[in-house]
Amino acid sequence: MTSSSASFTAHAPGTLMLMGEHAVLHGRPALCMAVSQRMQLVLKKRADRNFTIQSALGAYAGELGDIEVCKPYTFVLEAIRRAAPCQGFDLKIHSEFSSTIGFGSSAAVTVSLVALLRHLAGHAFDRASIFSESLSVVRSVQGTASGSDVAAAVYGGVVHYRADPLQLEPLHCQLPLSVCYVGYKTPTPEVIGIVDTLRGQHPARFEELFTLIGNCVGDALAALRQGDLAELGRLFNLHQGCQSALGCSDGTLEYLIYQLRAQAGIHGAKISGSGLGDCVIALGNAEAKVNGYDHFPIQTASEGVSLEF
């Protein structure tokens, strides 16, 4: 039985990795961008200790004292389990992007829900606490996670991020990006396992690759601060060479990259995310596309997670 309590809403942006993939898991920095496509969660209090979830993935109903974390709501259920709210609720989730495309849906839904559950518990809106609690949820579910997408979803803009020791610097700038979806996606933990296997065969060379990726991120940070998109694009291309060397690319991704690089206004193109599928990003012309592949013009979202009540 639900009460007539007013509902409250949280929004968080999707995210894209710009640079630092894989190396960020080995102590190097990364750049992650919040995108204009957002996730919206609406929570309405109940008078009992039951909760429901509704989204494009389907409906779920449970009881707060007996939560089994399971698909397709692993991140949502883990966040609820950890928060241990005293009051039930109905939760509606709406996303402006598909969970099958690498726009950080897991980070966006986790950050939004953590913000809502903290408000439900009477806590003040605090981005640092939302980030910390959300990262704990994501790592509990995934095992290995840098947290760069969580940081971008919380703070917005382009986030310069290092996991250990934690460094987090939001930069407010606008980047015109074209995103092309290759049509398939290899799960991130699987790609990480492939990279780790190769790294075990050539540990010194992979450390050099991680260091080069970290240097690309440092140079890209300077280019961002100077508004030098041409230099940032050149660094995209250099970074992509490292990702190929890590074993994260394939023929279809390389085809997309070179088709995009050949188009007017494009400064550079690379894989976004762990690789072996998912998305390619091209900098400079948000309308650049490749026939036969889904295309998304992307702008930077300056606003991170927000609450309405």
What does this structure look like?
It is a single chain. The protein is an alpha+beta fold. The chain folds into 2 domains: 8-174, Ribosomal Protein S5, domain 2, CATH 3.30.230; 177-298, Alpha-Beta Plaits (2-Layer Sandwich), CATH 3.30.70.890. It has 8 helices and 12 strands. The protein has helices spanning 74-83, 105-120, 127-142, 148-155, 188-201, 203-226, 229-246, 251-261, and strands at residues 8-19, 30-45, 50-55, 58-63, 89-95, 158-162, 167-171, 177-181, 268-272, 279-283, 294-298, 306-308. The strands form 2 sheets. Strands 1, 2, 3, 4, 5, 6, 7 and 12 form an 8-stranded mixed beta sheet that branches. The chain has a 4-stranded antiparallel beta sheet with strand order 9-10-8-11. β9 (268-272) and β10 form a beta hairpin. α2 (105-120) packs across α3 and α6 (203-226) packs antiparallel against α7. It starts with 7 loop residues before the first strand and ends with a strand. The mean pLDDT is 95.
Write the topology of this structure.
Elements: E1 8-19, E2 30-45, E3 50-55, E4 58-63, H1 74-83, E5 89-95, H2 105-120, H3 127-142, H4 148-155, E6 158-162, E7 167-171, E8 177-181, H5 188-201, H6 203-226, H7 229-246, H8 251-261, E9 268-272, E10 279-283, E11 294-298, E12 306-308
Helix pairs in contact: 1-2, 1-3, 2-3, 2-4, 3-4, 5-6, 6-7
